[in-house]
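Next comes this protein.

***
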Amino acid sequence: MRAVESNWYRNFLSNLSLTKNRYDDAITKVTSGKKLNRLSDNPADMAYVLGLRGKVEQIDQFGKNISTAKSFLTAGESAMNAIQNSLYRVITLAEQGASETSTPEGRVTIAQEIDQIRDSILNYANTEVMGKFIFAGSDNDSIPFEKDPLEVPTPDNIIYNGDGSVVNVQADFSILVPTNIPGNEVFGVGNAIATAPGGSIDMFAVLHDLRDALIADDTTAITASMDLMSDFQEQINESRGEIGNNLRHLTDIQGMLNTYQNSLRVKISDLEDADMAQAISDLSREEVGLQATLQAGSRIQRHSLMNYLG
């Protein structure tokens, strides 16, 4: 009798374990809203979902990269807009200085304003975003433009401490987009000459020469500086256009990534989200099955020797 009763207990415990596992799975689906909660639920689908989630996370990172890149590019665009406005003022002042109606004293006054504008443009050239100098190339932890500290008695000429590197950002799975234009390309190399290597006009040297020409009452040199200033405006416009193209490119990529990410999330939802009506129905069924199993187990203990002798 004991052997028979022992078999009943083993069968009961086995059935109880299976029923309890199904009941637990049903509760998990209802409470989580997911039909895939562990790898054993459906190994193939779970592996696919994990791959899709990895892509979603990558796109999130691309989004952060794009936002950072846009911050740098927008700051660069704003700085160059301000510089462009400053250049319009410089040209107006230079025209006044070149006029025959200007006096030597008036040209000195104009020179003083030119010097103030030069300092203002120097500040824009050292624009900083998130602790990074946007016109410093890849060496963006250090201030790119400064008055030569070795110049005595008074520092005046501007030197460039950055490099000519372009910093790219990973904007997509296979696309790199520039986040900057090196300062030596935008402003020229600050070495007190009018034209920097590679053809970029050294704006600080031009302003330096214009100021000195005004102080020296040299109208020929003033006119020559004006011509260079017009060329520098074109240089700034080209840089602004490049930044604008990069911003548009990033915006387009961002839009495509958002669309792709949404489609991935729909696929993930289709694979892992539970049909709640079905899940609740399954839970009710498994709850009934568990109660029936427990009731059957309780009857085992009611059997005694008298049941078999009667």
Notes: The first strand starts at residue 128 and ends at 129. Residues 68-266 form a domain with the f41 fragment of flagellin, N-terminal domain fold (CATH 1.20.1330.10). The first helix runs from residue 2 to 32.
